Amino acid sequence: MPRISDRQSMAVGKSNAQKSRPISPESNASTKVWLFSLLLTLQYGAQPLISKRFTSKEVIVTSSVLACEVVKVICALLLLAKDGSLKKLFKEWTLVGSLTASGLPAAIYALQNSLLQISYRNLDSLTFSMLNQTKLFFTALFTFIILRQRQSIQQVGALFLLIIAAVLLSVGEGSSKASSSHNPDEVLFYGIVPVLVASVLSGLASALCQWASQVKKHASYLMTVEMSIIGSLCLLVSAYKSPDGLAIRKHGFFYGWTPLTWIPVVLNAVGGILVGLVTSYAGGVRKGFVIVSALLVTALLQFIFDGKPPSPYCLVALPLVVTSISIYQKYPYRVKKKEI
């Protein structure tokens, strides 16, 4: 019988080892990235349509926002418990540290969520989604002001494209819908203005959260819990004498709700968790592709379920939005040798 050489024996052993080797952590992580990215794309793209379909105009905005915050806290606590870090973070937690890191962003996000709920009801889904992308510009602006995070020339150009698209949508959609509306100012003041103000607030809050994460070393899931609780308290205080507060006391917290109303509430909360997961596993580039894909999902779902093709203004603005976000993610700022 011919003798097997040492080299052949090593080759056979290596082949058998490769066959019996378990799936690598990198492969498992890649699978998670694709799964989270797909789920976030579907959630982000479908959220405006689902909110408009399952949330009636009788639903009190504050009740919807508060319910979303409660669901978000539950999801974040479950994730912390799963990671095994809940007890450790609870022991190290301090009220001063919590207010310093999460207090202001929480109040800002609470106001932003209320504005988004108002805008959902007065804009079509695709217009809302594209106007909502202007938060990328304001995030870049506030991260530069607060963290001195610079932008490349390509990114600056991309951000200008995004602003042009937003202005086009604001003027075009507002004028076209006003002509067929009984109240010409309704679309502008209850649809376009709220989502643009919410984008400014989102950019400021994102920069503050990034500062808390990088400078204060605050855990992201813990910030989610803190911001949801603080934001809910801010909403409750502000709603005491507001029309929403009066409506809740008169009609009840769940006035206008149906079992289907929980669908957009839960999806919105889960979407916030998915954003953190995609960013954690894949970074900002993959998140940018998710946002672009979500815009196309919104347009497709709106056409399928509402039978409504995109307006001419959306058709012009959509490629500007897609191009600007793609360029922004593809050409990040690179530090020059002289700056090191």
TrEMBL record:
One of its GO terms (molecular function) is pyrimidine nucleotide-sugar transmembrane transporter activity. Residues 15-26 have a biased composition (Polar residues). The chain crosses the membrane at residues 59-81, 93-110, 130-147, 156-175, 187-209, 221-240, 260-281, 288-304, 310-328. GO terms for cellular component: Golgi membrane. It is found in: Membrane. It is a multi-pass membrane protein. InterPro entries: EmrE-like, Nuc_sug_transpt. The keyword tRNA processing does not apply. Keywords: Membrane, Transmembrane, Transmembrane helix. Residues 1-26 are annotated as: Disordered. The keyword Nucleus does not apply. Its main location: membrane. It comes from the Eukaryota. PANTHER family: NUCLEOTIDE-SUGAR TRANSMEMBRANE TRANSPORTER. Belongs to the nucleotide-sugar transporter family. CMP-Sialate:CMP antiporter (TC 2.A.7.12) subfamily. This is Putative UDP-galactose transporter. It comes from Handroanthus impetiginosus.
